[in-house]
Specification:
Elements lengths: L2 E7 L3 H15 L4 E4 L4 H7 L5 H9 L2 E6 L16 H10 L3 E7 L12 H4 L3 E7 L9 E5 L5 E5 L5 H17 L3 E6 L5 H14 L6 E6 H10 L6 E4 L1 H15 L6 E5 L5 E5 L16 H13 L4 H16 L13 H10 L2
Parallel strand pairs: 1-2, 1-3, 3-12, 5-10, 8-9, 8-10
Antiparallel strand pairs: 4-5, 4-11, 6-7, 11-12
Helix pairs in contact: 1-10, 1-12, 6-7, 8-9, 10-11, 11-12
The chain binds adenosine-5'-triphosphate (ATP) and magnesium ion.
The site of adenosine-5'-triphosphate (ATP) has 16 residues, from loops.
Subcellular location: Cytoplasm
Function: Catalyzes the oxidation of 3-carboxy-2-hydroxy-4-methylpentanoate (3-isopropylmalate) to 3-carboxy-4-methyl-2-oxopentanoate. The product decarboxylates to 4-methyl-2 oxopentanoate.
GO molecular function, one term: magnesium ion binding
Length: about 350
C-alpha cells in the first residue's frame, strides 16, 4: 500500500489539494490517502500548528501532499505557534534538505512573465536549493560593541557532508534533464562557498555524464533575466537559492502555476505549490489549482518512481493552458474546479 498524507492547511490550501487529489485519483487510482491537520486549521482544533498526530502521519506516509499554511487571524501569536511554523517543523523532523523548484513557461503564458515573451519562452530550468543549513541555521545573535553600537550577526556555515548530499541531488536531477549542472556560489569572497565549490567538484567525479559549471550568484541573478535559456539545473545554498528561486518564479509566470518538492535521504518527499494560502481569495473557488496538480506530478516522479504518470499530468496541464483554460490569476474566469476539469479532460 502506498500512503499519501494530505495536509491541506489554510486558505486556498484545501481547495487546491482537493483538485490535485482528483487528478491523482484518475492517474494513480491505487494510492491511499489520509488527511492530517496542519497550520492555522490545526491550531484552531488542537492548539498547535503541527500536532503530534500529523507528524506521526507524515512519518508513516510514503509522501506528503501539502497545500499551504498561513492565516492572518493568527498573526498575533508567538512565533512558535504561528501556522507558518508547521512547514518548517515538518522539513526539519523529516530531514528534507533539498528543495526542487522547476520553472518553465507554459506555452501561452508569455504575458504572465516579467520578461519579454521571446526571452520568457526559453525558460526551462530547475533550482535545487539546500534547505537546512547556511546562514539560516548558523549561530545568531545580538551584541553591543565596546562603544555601545548594536550588532547583529548570523553565521554562514556548511560542512562537507551537507554540501555533498545536496550536490548529489543536483547531479542526479541534471542527469534526468539535459545533463547540465550549474553550481552557484560566491567563492570569490566566501569561505563557505570555496568549500562548496571544492566539494561539488569532488562529487562531480561520480557523474562523468553531467557537465558541471560554476557561477557567482550576482552573475547568476543577472543571467537569469538576461538569458534564462542557458540554464538547465542549478544547485545552490539556502540563502542564494531562496532569492534565485523567487526570481526564477517571476520570470516563469504566475505563482499559481509553479510546483515544488522538498526531499531528504529517503524517497520520502513533501510536495507543495510555491504560493501561500492566499487569504484574499480563500473560499471563493477562484484559486488556480495547477501549481498543486503539478506538485502532485512531482510526487509521482520523485517519491513514487512513476515518472510516466507525472509526464501525463504535466502534459495535460500544458495542454489545458495552451487551449486557453485560464483561472483569474491568468486573466481568465474559470473556477478552481473547472480548471481541474480542463486538466482532467486532457488526460
Ligand atoms: P506565503 O507567505 O505563504 O508565501 P504570501 O502572503 O507571500 O504567502 P500568497 O498566499 O502566495 O502570498 O499570495 C500572494 C498573491 O498571489 C495573493 O494575491 C494571492 O491571491 C495570489 N495567489 C496565490 N496563490 C494563488 C493561486 N493558486 N491562484 C490564484 N492566485 C493566487
Ligand atoms: Mg510568499
Amino acid at each position: 500500500m502506498t500512503l499519501i498524507a494530505v495536509l491541506a492547511g489554510d486558505g486556498i490550501g484545501p481547495e487546491v489539494t482537493a483538485q490535485a487529489r482528483r487528478v491523482l485519483e484518475v492517474v494513480a487510482p491505487d494510492l491511499t490517502y489520509e488527511e492530517g491537520l496542519v497550520g492555522g486549521a490545526a491550531y484552531r482544533q488542537t492548539g498547535h500548528p503541527l500536532p503530534e498526530a500529523t507528524l506521526a502521519l507524515a512519518e508513516r506516509a510514503d509522501a506528503i501532499l501539502f497545500g499551504a499554511v498561513g492565516d492572518p487571524e493568527f498573526d498575533g501569536l508567538e512565533r512558535a505557534l504561528r501556522p507558518e511554523q508547521a512547514i518548517l517543523g515538518l522539513r526539519k523532523s523529516l530531514g528534507l534538505f533539498a528543495n526542487l523548484r522547476p520553472a518553465r513557461l507554459f506555452e501561452g503564458l508569455e504575458d504572465a512573465s516579467a520578461l519579454k515573451p521571446e526571452i520568457a519562452r526559453t525558460i526551462d530550468l530547475v533550482i535545487v536549493r539546500e534547505l537546512t543549513g547556511d546562514v539560516y541555521f548558523g549561530d545568531k545573535g545580538r551584541d553591543l560593541t565596546p562603544a555601545g553600537l548594536r550588532v547583529g550577526h548570523d553565521l554562514m556555515r556548511y560542512d562537507e557532508e551537507e554540501v555533498a548530499r545536496i550536490a548529489h541531488v543536483g547531479f542526479g536531477t541534471a542527469r534526468t534533464r539535459r545533463g547540465r549542472l550549474l553550481s552557484v556560489d560566491k567563492a570569490n569572497v566566501l569561505e563557505t562557498s570555496q568549500l562548496w565549490r571544492d566539494v561539488v567538484v569532488e562529487v562531480a567525479r561520480d557523474y562523468p555524464d553531467v557537465q558541471l559549471a560554476h557561477m557567482y550568484v550576482d552573475n547568476a541573478a543577472m543571467q537569469l533575466v538576461r538569458d534564462p535559456g542557458q540554464f538547465d539545473t542549478i544547485v545552490t545554498g539556502n540563502l542564494f537559492g531562496d532569492i534565485l528561486s523567487d526570481q526564477a518564479s517571476m520570470c516563469a509566470g504566475s505563482i499559481g502555476m509553479l510546483a515544488s518538492a522538498a526531499l531528504g535521504e529517503t524517497g520520502k518527499g513533501l510536495y507543495e505549490p510555491i504560493h501561500g494560502s492566499a487569504p484574499d481569495i480563500a473560499g471563493q473557488g477562484r484559486a488556480n489549482p495547477c501549481a498543486t496538480i503539478l506538485s502532485a506530478a512531482m510526487m509521482l516522479r520523485h517519491s513514487l518512481g512513476r515518472g510516466d504518470d507525472a509526464d501525463r499530468i504535466e502534459a495535460a496541464v500544458a495542454r489545458a493552458i495552451s487551449e486557453g483554460a485560464r483561472t483569474a490569476d491568468l486573466g481568465g474566469s474559470l473556477s478552481t474546479e473547472a480548471m481541474a476539469e480542463r486538466v482532467l479532460a486532457g488526460l
